[in-house]
Amino acid sequence: MEAYTNGSLAGALSLEGRDYCFTYLSQNPDSFISLTMPVRNKSYIYPKNSLHPIFDMNMPEGYLFEVLKELLKKDVERLDDLTLFEALAPNIDGRLTYKAANGTKIEEIKKDYSLDELLGSKADIFTELLHTFLSRSAVSGVQPKVLATLKDKIKLDTKEYIVKSYGEEFPYLCENEYFCMQTARSAGLITPSLYLSENKKLLIVERFTNDEKDGKRIGFEEACVLQGKNKSEKYSGSYEQLAKTIKTFVAPKNLEYSMDQLYRSVVLSFIMRNGDAHLKNFGILYFEGVGDAVISPAYDIVTTTAYLPKDKPALTLQGKKIWWEKKTLVEFGRIYCNLPTAKATAVYDECAEAIKDGIVRLQEYTAQNPHFEKIGTMMIASWMDGLDGKSKKEVDFGDL
After folding, report:
1. Is 1 in contact with 13 (CB distance < 8 Å)?
2. Residue 107, helix vs strand vs coil
3. What is the DSSP letter of 218?
4. Which residues contact 221 (CB under 8 A, 6 or more apart)?
5. Residue 232 near residue 189 (C-beta atoms within 8 A)
6. Beta bridge partners of 285
7. Would 339 disulfide with which of 172, 203, 250, 344, CB 3.0-4.6 Å?
8. Are 161 and 148 in contact (CB under 8 A)?
9. Looking at the chain, which residues constitute the CATH 1.10.1070 domain(s)?
10. Residue 250 to residue 257: CA distance in whole angstroms
């Protein structure tokens, strides 16, 4: 399969035995497919019977993976990562694009949707969206989601959005994430535009990789890629290592901003009890490369303890996966995010105040939406526990 950067041929990906091999066919240094894989003559071999992290980054997980596997199993004898990637890759549209020499084709249903149509829909149309946009949905994550191109009737253009839903295991997850993201924005985190449908069954998030500049598409790489890991390793490592990774790859001119955003994100995840702040949920953006790289907007923030009361942080901090208190988080900001103690403390307090305001909004919303009472109450208890300020191995729900 051929890989292209900004429309120009970069190289070819192949499976040789159990090893995945990527070979550059271009000598142009700007043709790099990842900041971790500069252009060179020698092939890049990934020997873990898994795609190179930059390709693996787009591989679906969980619900979407099972749907695709069921669809393709009639046409292929063995569904390995390359076979699945070949089926999805032709519709990946960004800084990197692909052409598969063979590959199983996923039938595409021709149907147009507008953002307003999805937001105002009374019916549960996620399954319909899934089958319409399945061939384009090279998007990672366990949550049911699909990558959709939607029309804006006012601006008369189209944009790509990630449309999320939920299953029985995590009910009302869209509302959970919506409130977490709104609170994160109030706390000073940059987030993509997102919308909750009227029926509460869809969360629609604008992709922040839509941007172009001087004919170049914006590049995005997850922390998993930057650390040379694939999706099975997303819970390995520490927040200290994550901070070092971001420092290594962002441009010096963007370092202060990037570390501020990383610190806010980590603080919020600890206070809001987001046990899913793993390596695939942090990333960087760039047009040119390390010269203009910057931390990406925050995404995929949820209160996981609303469903898993004994959930833990995704990565270690000070060698442990426990819900650390303010003092430890401020130290993390000072030592690993380059923030003076006073600044780290002030940012923590800003996050705490935003969460207090978020609790009020959650209380009001829960009172008006009885279906959300159980999850909303668990979220409120989790956030209050996070504000309590004591190190804990698990969330204390008291008499709930």
Report:
1. yes
2. coil
3. P
4. 34, 35, 36, 54, 57, 249, 283, 284
5. no
6. 220, 294
7. 344
8. yes
9. 218-387
10. 10
Domain covering 218-387: architecture: Orthogonal Bundle (1.10)
| pLDDT tens digits, one per residue of 29-88 | 999 999 999 999 999 998 767 899 999 998 877 777 777 777 676 666 667 778 788 877
Name residue 203's beta-bridge partners.
164, 196
Determine the 3-state secondary structure of 158 from DSSP: strand
5 has pLDDT over 60: yes
Report the distance separating Cα 305 and Cα 384, nearest Å. Answer: 12
| pLDDT band of 215, cuts 50, 70, 90 | confident
pLDDT tops 70 at residue 157: no
- What is the pTM (predicted TM-score) of this model? 0.91
Token look-up 């603080």 returns: 267
Q: Would residue 72 be called left, alpha or beta, if left means φ above 0 and alpha means ψ between -120 and 50 degrees?
A: alpha
- The DSSP line for 173-201 is HHHHHHHHHHHHHHTT-----EEE-TTSS
pLDDT at 130 over 80: no
**C-alpha 379, offset from chain centre:** 21
CA distance 51 to 231: 10
Contact 51, 57 (CB under 8 A): no
C-alpha angle 201/202/203, rounded to 5°? Answer: 135
Burial grade of 48 (CB within 10 A; 0-12, 13-18, 19 or more): middle
Q: Tell me the angle at which helices 341-368 and 173-186 cross, rounded to the nearest 10 degrees.
A: 140
* Segment 311-363, tens digit of pLDDT: 999 999 999 999 999 999 999 999 999 999 999 999 999 999 999 999 999 99
- Alpha-carbon distance of 183 to 111, in angstroms, equals 35
CA distances in angstroms from 240 to 50, 259, 297, listed in the order given: 26, 12, 19
pLDDT score at 39 = 98
